[in-house]
Design a protein that fits this description.
Length: about 550
Amino acid sequence: MSPTDTQEAKMFCFQCEQTAKGTGCTVHGVCGKDPVTATLQDLLVHATKGLSMYAHRARALGARDRELDVFVVEALFTTVTNVNFDAERIAQLVCRAAALRDKAKTLYESACKKAGKTPEKLSGPEVFQPAGDLAGLVAQGHEVGILARKRALGEEATALESLVTFGLKGAAAYADHAQILGQSDDGVYAFFHETLDMLAREKPTADELLGRALAVGETNLKIMGLLDAANTGAYGNPEPTPVRITPKKGKAIVVSGHDLKDLEELLKQTQGTGINVYTHGEMLPAHAYPGLKKYKHLAGNYGGAWQGQQKEFDAFPGAILMTTNCIQKPRDSYLGRIFTSGLVAWPGVRHIGDRNFRPLIDAALAAPGFAEDAPEKTILVGFGHAAVLGVAEKVIEAVKAGKIRRFFLIGGCDGAKPGRNYYTELAEAVPEDCIILTLACGKYRFNKLAFGDIGGIPRMLDCGQCNDAYSAIRIAGALAEAFGCGVNDLPLSLILSWYEQKAVVILLTLLHLGIRNIRLGPSLPAFVTPAMLKVLAEKFNIMPISTPKEDLAAALAGR
Ligand code: SF4
Ligand code: SF4
């Protein structure tokens, strides 16, 4: 049975900001995810919980297995918005989860034997056995999806459980990038298993779930630190770097997503071929890393944030590589020259799983390339924690002298929904004695505007990808230390945009750090119930964005 044969399958997904009607995708994902894929993703999370129930218990007895750890991270990342749209591949992962669950069970039982203990009798996801065909898997998925959870747990508990699950998915994305570059932490894997085990339990309490959500944020801070160490260890600390945003004459490849290792391998393999490599979307910060910018054919940045890719790739005269989220349904015009790597998948799109980019290079050589150089224009990137803290004294002096009145962190995910021009209008309206820190693809709303500088300090500092929220947190921490106050007492306003689960986990990290007064837009998550919002508002004064004018006035007044 093919995915299309089961299109009548019910779905419910509300994990991202563009969810249908602001409540949930029920017929087909606004992102392009079909009901079968959505249901299989739910089943994959369920099967992974079963694996973790045993892995968690085995670990308590000192037995670990790296294959189990890595798989859990990859499986969760696979279910993040705009990563994998291929039902067949997700079905294979469900079966692999069940096979690895058996491995985890054996690991646990032999650890028990060694320790002279009787294995616990478990119930729930650990008994899952995948059906023999796609229709059967979809039927199993319906039993464990959000609608089934709501029936079993009620609205509030499902909302809290979703907050934890979606945060964990976002954290998994960062953990995967770090593990690809050789950085991992055993405590992080233990946390993933422990949290999935907790979610597998029948009825965790609201307090347990809220506490766990903040713990996910705490672990994510550690994971973002690992990823920072992975990126800077492999490629050096980002340096302020002008990046060309207009094309150069010649054959071309554009690389999108977040995976710097894929970009590096491609740069090595395209050396001497005459192909210029361009970054797209969240790959832009790559230009600031010494270990990547040393490649002279890393020619520039092409296009904007992920949601413009269909039009931009259509017009791109070369080949395209999607390394991680966020992929959209490819148009026929470029279906033959787009490739995926890593965990990304779209049915019918050629996948390169081994970093041998020869087919991509051949597609680029067969395409016309840019006919001529466009007039050169550049933007400045590379303001990670090392670069900003390197000029910390200058920044602190400027604050003390009243030359810098306030910092605005305006960043996060971009998206397709109308209303996101709020962020452009807000950035434009920020007074000239204020600095804008930004990160993630939300910056494309304003990163080509001229903001000038304050005594040589650029007024817009691009910290990097969404995971470089870690840099923003380090910068805020260093400023707080210099001024002898808490981060909440700094002249700093956080006005964030969210789209998918990485943004959810960054928000949880900020809440774990006790950061208050965050403004969030363009709309609040559909899985946040009024009761949950009340708790978050009371504890953290988190609030929805209103208008640029009102929010700016409130922020300048320290509210
Ligand atoms: S990921 Fe977002 S757009 Fe896609 S199905 Fe889920 S809620 Fe809808
Ligand atoms: S910041 Fe979020 S929305 Fe933007 S490309 Fe990265 S994952 Fe996608």
